[in-house]
Amino acid sequence: MFAGQGDAGGKQVAFKDIDVPYETGDEYAIPNKCKYIITFTARQSFEGTRRQAGITEGFAVWYSYARYIKMMCHMQEFIRGLGYDCLNMSGLCFSNPLSAITGLGEHGRMSSPTIHPKNGTTNRANGWAFLTDMPIAPTKPIDFGAYKFCETCGICADSCPFGIIQKGPSTWENPDAAGNGLAQGQFRGWRTDNVKCPHCPT
Fold it and tell me: What is the DSSP letter of 14?
């Protein structure tokens, strides 16, 4: 679930019986009391996303990222103001699994974007997550049919001009791992070789 624990070459993420989180040269230490996670998405412009590979070159994506940073700061300081720990886990966790298990959307063949029941893939949910000790009601994963649809559709993989969207049935392993060095395992689904992806609107 956490990028630092896998093949990304990052620091280890360790949950410990401590009161205050800390960071060392090779570890992120997180208090065991931080057992709640908050995830969210940032909506992209639909029209901007459709023209992403044109002259505007991804403004919809980057505008969403810019809003996300501001939103993260406001949320984090608000929760801290209530007297709770609030740890920004962005960049330390994989977005798609967290989005799926917290009910934001479903995993799909395009892999990186979470498929939202209303906004489809025109959203950013890239590991935007907080760990907190603030008690919050848990949400359950949702099933609105996107994952099942992706099992038999494959239009995005066939249409991808760079051939980087995994074809065929969902798998537990990344078939491109030998070529790109990214294992991306530990879940049944599809992987996109993002190393070769210029983010076209496919």
Answer: E
